[in-house]
Amino acid sequence: MNKKIISLFIILFRLITRFPSRILFGNLNKFHYNIIPYFHLFYWKLISKKDEFNKNGFIKINFNQKRELIEKIKSQFDKQIKDSSKIFYSGGDRKKISLKNPLEIKGILKLHDIFKDILNDYYEGNYKVETISCWRTMYDKSRENKKEDYIFSNYWHFDDFNCGNLKVFILMNEFTDHNSGSTKLINKRNTKFLTRSFKFLDTSISNFSLNEFAKKNKMIVSCDGKLGDTYVVNTTKCLHSASIPQRGKYRDLIQFEISFSSSVKNPFDKLSFKN
Q1: Which among 114, 90, 87 has a CA at the least distance from the CA of 101?
Q2: What secondary structure does DSSP assign to 137-160, as a single string?
Q3: Burial, 2: exposed, middle or buried (Cβ in 10 Å; 0-12, 13-18, 19+)?
Q4: Contact status, residue 189 vs residue 247, Cβ threshold 8 Å
Q5: 167-213: per-residue pLDDT in tens?
Q6: Structural domain of residue 87, as residue ranges?
Q7: Within a 10 A sphere around the Cβ of 251, how many other Cβ atoms?
């Protein structure tokens, strides 16, 4: 009972403290995370840009490098994800398997060439790669339930960090779709509507009603694609969620996390990895 009371208190506290961000910015991130980017000139210039990426908050880039590169990376990914000495599990159900050190994959930094033009335009060339992460998400029986359990970020949410940051998702299945667990997202405009109209209350209490509403109104974008296809997403401004693969399938992904930096000449100078 005490845990339920504490949980409800936390949700209520979050609803109250995030109210200014909800109304002014159309998201539920900390207020200062919305303000920080305005200290940089590049962010002011984005306001007047009408291109697809800035309008929607995400863009898909079809794989545009040599097939040999992505096949070599996939081969190493597949080998390492099966090596118990090179992986760790996220979450109690061991349904998300991550690589301890993605930098052991030779050629992984070359994937930057797929999306660097988008980043150069967005940040006017001033950015750094904060982290690279690699993981596999597995089937869970909760997929068959009307209301899924929380397994690995499979509830609608915002990423709560600097709103000028971006995430890059590189698909590592031969083909990724809803059957293999593709990421779902809602574009920036619809996200603001859902947040400001209180259709989205909080990740903990409105996930299923929001999902039905968004599905009915055709707001959901499924991040499908072929091996190497890439999505650049502002995950602080677009509601998004993972999805659980169907039985017998899994979803492989490489993620780059990007932030503004005017002092780093090489975007990989401060690179780290999560474990």
Answers
A1: 87
A2: EE--GGGGSSSPPPSSS-S-B---
A3: exposed
A4: no
A5: 999 999 999 999 999 999 999 999 999 999 999 999 888 788 999 99
A6: 2-273
A7: 25
| DSSP-assigned letters across all residues of 200-246 | ---TTTSHHHHHHHHHHTT-EEE--EETT-EEEE-TTTS-EE--PPP
Distance CA 141, CA 244 (A): 9
Number of domains forming the structure of the chain: 1
Domain of residue 49, CATH code: 2.60.120.620
Distance CA 60, CA 230 (A): 6
CA distance 166 to 119: 9
Task: Report the alpha-carbon angle 273-274-275, nearest 5.
Answer: 125
How far is the C-alpha of 61 from the C-alpha of 204, rounded, in Å?
Answer: 32
- Global pTM value: 0.94
